[in-house]
Write a structure and sequence with these properties.
Blueprint (H helix, E strand, L loop, with lengths): L1 H15 L2 E2 L7 H16 L2 H5 L5 H10 L9 E6 L2 H4 L8 H21 L3 H9 L1 E7 L7 E6 L6 E7 L4 E8 L10 H7 L6 E5 L2
Parallel strand pairs: 1-3
Antiparallel strand pairs: 2-4, 2-7, 3-6, 4-5, 5-6
Helix pairs in contact: 4-7
Length: about 200
């Protein structure tokens, strides 16, 4: 029981993070890259993983995901979603409720992608989630930065607008093998039903 509570508190602290001081001048790209690096570190740390699961199948998924280098992306793509087109009924919601819904939908996109791989991939991805909160005026609309690598699984970091000029960045590994992320066109085609717009971004 104590181990379970401790693991839950650790996960909450890693997911929510703290509002970073002096981070306002750091670009979103760099914030996301740091989150992606932390995800890779989580996947490759047996001591960390043991806090959350002893399931061999899940641990094998993460061990394979941890083999790559998450410090040097091959390409990074910015994904935005027209939430009103996906859920027309949001037009009738209050501003605060709509903002909350948009943030939740943005963060949930790659949870849904991982779910396509089955329960083991979804469970593995849920173990390796991390995030941070920082002050920034660079985010004009909620977006996902997808970090792709030559020899590592992709990492998706969702950026959502918060209160008082803050931005929340929450990331997870993309473990579904059927997800192709070699080009913006392929990503857009995979997410076509969501009406996603995809563009490559640079540091």
């Amino acid at each position: 029981m104590r181990r379970t509570i401790g693991a839950a508190l650790l996960a909450a602290s890693l997911l929510l993070g703290g509002c970073q001081a002096g981070a306002a001048d750091k670009p979103l790209y760099q914030h996301g890259l740091e989150v992606a690096g932390l995800l890779g570190e989580m996947a490759g740390n047996p001591a960390y993983l043991s806090l959350f699961s002893s399931n061999e199948a899940i641990l094998t998924v993460l061990a394979e995901a941890a083999q790559g280098d998450f410090s040097q992306p091959k390409a990074v793509y910015r994904i935005t979603l027209p939430v009103s087109a996906l859920h027309p009924e949001v037009e009738g919601l209050s501003g605060a409720l709509r903002k909350s819904l948009e943030a939740r939908l943005t963060a949930a996109v790659f949870t849904q992608v991982n779910a396509l791989g089955g329960p083991e991939q979804l469970a593995a991805a849920s173990i390796c989630t991390a995030g941070t909160v920082f002050a920034s005026d660079a985010l004009e609309e909620n977006a996902i930065y997808l970090y792709t690598y030559e020899n590592a699984v992709p990492a998706a970091v969702s950026f959502t607008q918060g209160e008082d000029g803050t931005v929340s960045a929450n990331g997870m590994l993309v473990l579904y093998n059927g997800f192709s992320a070699d080009t913006a066109a392929e990503i857009g085609q995979f997410l076509a039903e969501l009406g996603a717009e995809v563009e490559e971004v640079s540091p």
